[in-house]
Amino acid sequence: MKLLLLFFLFIPSIIFMQTGMVSGIVKDASTNEYLIGANVVIIELENTGTATDENGKFNLSLPVGSYSMKVSLIGYQPVVKIDVIVKTKSEVFLEISLIPTAIVISEVKVTADYFDKAVIENNLSTVALGVEQVRRSPGAMGDFQRILQAMPGVSFSNDQTNELLVRGGSPNENLTVFDGMELHSTNHYPNEFNSGGPINMVNTELIQDIQFSTGGFISKYGDKLSSVMIINTREGTRLSNLMGEINFNMAGIGAILEGNINNGKGSWLISLRKSYIDLIAGGFGLTAIPKYYDGQFKIAYDLSNNHKLSWSGIYGNDKILFEGESEKTYEEKAGVVDSVDVGHIDVKQNQWASGIMLKSFWSKKLYSNISFYGNNYHDDILLKADYTERIFDSSGKLEETNFISSRKIFDNISDNTEMAIRSEFIYNISKTHKLEFGGLFKFGGYIQKAYIDADTSRYDLNDDGIFDQIVFQPESEIKTDLKLFDNYKSYIFLNDHINLLNQKLQINLGLRYDYFSYSENGNVSPRLSLSYFLIPTITSINFAYGEYYQTQAYPTYGDRYNTNINKFVKNTHARHFVAGIEHILDDGLKLNFEGYYKTYNNIPVSETFINFNDHTFRSEKMLNIGTQKVYGIDFLIQQKLVKNIYGTISYSRMWSKVDDPRNGYKGKIYSSDYDFPHVFNVVIGKRFSNLRKDLNELPFYIKYPSYILPFSDDMEISTRWRYASGKPYTPEIYVTNEQHRVGSIKWTEGSWVSSSEINSLRYKPYHRLDIAFNSRYNFESWNLVITLSVQNVYNRKNITTFQYNSDGTVDNIYQFSLLPVAGIEIEF
Questions:
Q1: What is the pTM of this model?
Q2: Each residue of 744-772: b (16+ CB within 10 Å) or e?
Q3: How far apart are CA 75 and CA 103, in angstroms?
């Protein structure tokens, strides 16, 4: 510890004044045409700047540090790029798009765009993030999905997962577009019903930008009902033959290497990471230890000035073993008790996605993006029960334990493979009118082999202590085989983007058609969004309407007895209405207020659930009778990093209600599983420059921690506090004679059954405070980045769920307690 402290104190004295390169290209956001003569100015260095050449490119050599860069050109709305991090002897490459404007300068001041409006396709319910916003966010552990959990309209189930619950939707309703590839998830330990996971596979350092829409998205995107997340990764350096980085953080131990191809005509980049939790698990007392690793790459090459080819991919491999505890089952004779260990769960998963994209600029009116990609997800989950015989003496002391047998209870092996070609064409009819059109054709294969052990249920229907009925379910094997080239999904879309009234009115009018060959379902989805600018570039009123359809997760189409009774289950349908107002208060300061109303129908509901009152009824059939309504308001104030201060304040008020489909309960409603009435987030951060020089003039809460923390001349401190209403749950009732189960589960003296009042109670409200420190050190030929954060600073005991024990007791299962997190990155 002393050596570490000396190292941190010594660092400021060995920092060198080094330089790095900022380069980029400036384009017209409407036509994708390169812009000549655009002014590029570093705001912090007023006399430093340049202009783009005949190919729209620019280069600037700058001292290492963090900058904001303003790009402007007559006839276009200026753009300010924040968080331009210049590293020692390295290159930062930026692609900047400027929005044409017909505003007369003498009539109104044109406000610079700090919010990446040029890359956002819809001026409603959408935010954009850069890599530094991900890095600095407290409590995010370098995971961009955990940052999005702080956005308005987004809830979360617990600390253990980064899943996104968007405006009352399930975590299966979120579309992820990774480098032009439409994927279900980019997370470790995923499943078919959830796009989230505990850890994201995407390396934060490889992110170029992220766009996230919580509703009303245009016709280009579909087969999901709630949100769209677009992840674009950066290219490797074109300046150096070899650059690299070694990092150590909560995501694992990893390295990044990158370099140029053919003297800068292309680039390559690769990232590899491996978990290290298994090496330190003993210190945390973990019994279930996740083991995972992932890889990511991107190769880009300019075929010509008008055509760029890129190839990118991602891979993840996951393993975890849950060891259970022995529980009492039944007493066979005096002194001998049989027990069963039901907790051996072995999970093995791997997934990959890889795709080639061709970006082509055909003329000033037409350009295109065409991608061909494939992805695969393999899952193997095995549950075993070990039966033992335990012998006790007359005093109850354990004398002997004998292993009897091990039996497979459940085994599920599934494999999902897709191959797709996706195209987008943009045709500019004029400066204020463009058409987007394209489509996708995707072969989809799904193979599932699942074994389920036999089970027997005994029922006391009249509560007289005598079993009236026994239901026996024999062991079964589920076999689902959707052959890869026998089934396909496809869609075509058209979106007409028009600017009217001297660009005060922006209209997106779209139409989309989706088809799934296996279920023979096809749907037409009209979309409309409007933005009217009361004050050009400053204040707008926005509205969106859309119809959205989503195919079911592949396992939904199967059944336990392989009868194909669910083959023709319909696609779930949602209708969106969104309205709001957005106002730019100051440079980089935005206020947004939105209201929304969503309706769902054709939700698949189990026939067994519908017949809730008949305890002996069993069915594998799914019926499209579920309906749901979600409505609410979202409020956001966002300050981008201007004058070294940034932050967000967001509040969401939501109502999410499900119409009860059960027999005997028609006309009643209950809260959905994802109903969080109140969600509140506050994020505040400040960047400090020349910290050591002015240390004595700083307030005590910065000055005193500096003696033990690795402060530098480029440091940030930030904090996040979040509050959420308690998650709804269905109470469990403990009974001693209503239901007993033997076979694959266990036989007990008592058991828990669900109340008929679904989601009638809530867990206690959730709240948590996180703080984070980020410091950057620049040396002669390398850089050091250190991140320190503390999650749940005041150690709030937030409940994840209840554990109902066989003896009738209930235990609380908590979320993360106070947790320090550290990370180190070495860049060379």
A1: 0.88
A2: bbbbbeebbeeeeebbeeebeebebbbbb
A3: 8
